[in-house]
Amino acid sequence: MIRRHLSSARQSWHSWLDSDHSLAALLFFLVLYSFIVYPLTGEEARTHPATTVSFSVILILGVMSTTKDKVARLLMTSLAAVAFTSQWLHFFLKVHPAHVVATVAAILFFAVLSWRITARVFRGGSINIYRILGAIAVYVLLGIVWGEIYILIYLQQPSSFYFDANTQMGEPPISELIYFSFVSLTTIGFGDILPVHPLARSLVTLEGLVGQIYPAVLLARLVTLYNK
What we know:
mainly alpha, 2 strands, globular, two-stranded antiparallel sheet
């Protein structure tokens, strides 16, 4: 009897993962991670327990909900394992090398996750609301990826960005650079943080371009194909 219930629960779990419903759950945690956890943790954004735990949940959910292909899942699992380990090492050690490794691992994982979700969203079949939510999740992931790249640049050369005197900063300014990434992605451009290094400027320009093209082309296309 217990074995039958476990088997039924396992089948229900895999059925949920294989459906598009898991994309909504992933979007929920990405929004929570980017727009609530990071701003509220402030100066302790990278080493705060809430950030580390929510990051770990996204790693697990990202691996489980993006693909059934064994090779792709092995790649995602490997990247998630490195990101998970380096994040928790930085959480406990709080040293610069661990922070660099954790940031690089996060960039790789979120970039590959964006690719896998995009492939899932645009695969064959009818377009439903969950696929549109998955496409929005990719948009949020783009902001996270660029934010992590800005963090990596800052860790190597802090003078790459100019911060207004009234900006409340941590050291390193993790939440500020994540905020700056989304401001750049949406082309709001408040001007309180500015790229100074040529590489940073190029990346900000590219992010603004992608931030305009993605919703205008891909999201709009999905909405037009949406079957209510």
